[in-house]
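FAQ

Q: What does a record look like?
A: Structure on top, sequence underneath. For example:
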């Protein structure tokens, strides 16, 4: 079993920055795919960014150039640095880890005011 706990959400003005963290614990293998997803009210959950165990990254077009995903393997922690935030970035942000199974955190709310 793997447990994922997100933190770092909050209220920020448009143009501001936040850094989200996702701490993983439990049976974590060295080979996995981790990612950040978000779900805005009334919308489907969508991929924001993903990072493979080898370090390759992938971003949604809407956040490319503004968000940066990274991870610290020694701390079993993944990060999402979010800059130049926009009101449309408002959502609950979820952490996901995929190896032989799929694990999700409970999410952290990001609210961007205009």
């Amino acid at each position: 079993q793997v447990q994922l706990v997100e933190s770092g959400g909050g209220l920020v003005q448009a143009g501001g920055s936040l850094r989200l963290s996702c701490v993983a614990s439990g049976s974590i293998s060295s080979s996995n795919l981790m990612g950040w997803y978000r779900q805005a009210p009334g919308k489907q959950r969508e991929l924001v960014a993903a990072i493979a165990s080898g370090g390759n990254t992938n971003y949604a077009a809407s956040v490319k150039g503004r968000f940066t995903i990274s991870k610290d393997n020694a701390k079993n922690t993944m990060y999402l640095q979010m800059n130049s935030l926009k009101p449309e970035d408002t959502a609950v942000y979820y952490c996901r880890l995929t190896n032989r199974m799929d694990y999700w955190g409970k999410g952290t709310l990001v609210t961007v005011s205009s």
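Q: Is there anything notable about this one?
A: The radius of gyration is 13 Å.
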